Amino acid sequence: MNKRLSVRDIRKFKFTMSKQKPLVSLVCYTAQMARLINNIVDIILVGDSMGMTIYGHENTLLVTPQMMINHGKAVVSSTSRPHIVVDLPFGSYEESPEKAFRTASRIMKHTGAQSVKLEGGKEFAETIYFLSQRGVPVMGHIGLMPQRIQTLGGFITQGKTQEASKQVIEDAKAIIDAGVFSMVIEAVPEETSNIITKNSEIPTIGIGAGRTCDGQILVAHDILGLYGDFTPKFVKKYAEIDKKITDAVTQYADDVRNKKFPTKNNIFKASI
Ligand code: KIV
All domains of the chain, ordered by start, with CATH? Predict the structure, then answer.
């Protein structure tokens, strides 16, 4: 059994392997998927995007800590090598550092995950410092923050103007100083994430943030073609599993309706 990657190992990527081999991260939520990718990826994020991909919600806001615990536990217990990060869902940490600690420690205790991720820039520096000083490793998430969908009005690229880019860079600096061990940068121009990556001592993990981040992250459902509702520009689809599923189920339905299934190979016979 391989040793699980720790926060220390992830930080080390910045100075050792990142130039040749960027960190490979994937968002996944189930035991079955986690088992399949255990020996392939470095980091699994049990993301609150599950609200949309698994539960069919319009956005991530309805996800609860208990949902994160159920899925986090399934992923941790089905893997041995990747570092597992679990998202703090909307409404479970914003109020105060103490509330964030209660949610984060509950999630870590009940899932066995090594760290948590929270969305936010300088306004969450105090919370990140509070958590990381108390044994909760925090992965940051800046740029497009899907939990702010209602105030943003949509999944909109961030940091496009000079002023907006400056703000994203300031957010990065604030959360690094507060103690994040790595950070996701979502949907910002490559120029912006490049400045952050060059000036940070922790690994940056990009999703729609260009080619120069220390690692990349995508949602497993997106790259496998399992989430047809919407595919962002930054996603590369590596398979069309949804089509394979509908084809297979159509064949099964035809077989049943045409009495081609079950065959004699699929039935039991009495022994007397
Ligand atoms: O929940 C999620 O899938 C995420 C990724 C977009 C990084 O936070």
Answer: 7-240 (3.20.20.60)
Reported pTM: 0.95
Residue with the two structure tokens 């479970």: 92
Q: What was the pLDDT predicted at 251?
A: 98
Alpha carbon distance 244, 224 (integer Å): 11
Q: Is 49 in the pocket of ligand 1 (CB under 6 A)?
A: yes
Residue 48 CB–ligand 1 contact under 6 Å: yes
pLDDT at 228: 79
Q: Which of 59, 219, 226 to mutate to test the pocket of ligand 1 (most atoms within 8 A of CB)?
A: 219
| Atom in ligand 1 nearest the alpha carbon of residue 219 | 3
Work out which ligand 1 atom sits closest to the CA atom of 49: 1
CA distances from 222 to 116, 125, 228, 230, 235 (A): 22, 31, 8, 9, 7
| CA distance linking residue 85 with residue 11, whole number of Å | 14
Nearest atom, ligand 1, residue 205 CA: 7
Predicted pLDDT of residue 54 = 96
Q: 């800046």: which residue's tokens?
A: 142
Please count the CA atoms within 13 angstroms of the CA of 86 that sit on its side-chain side: 32
* pLDDT tens, residue by residue, 50-99: 999 999 999 999 999 999 999 999 999 999 999 999 999 999 999 999 99
Structure tokens at 202: 């922790």
186 is catalytic: yes
CA of 130 to the centre of ligand 1 (A): 23
With a cut of 50, which residues of the chain have pLDDT below it? none
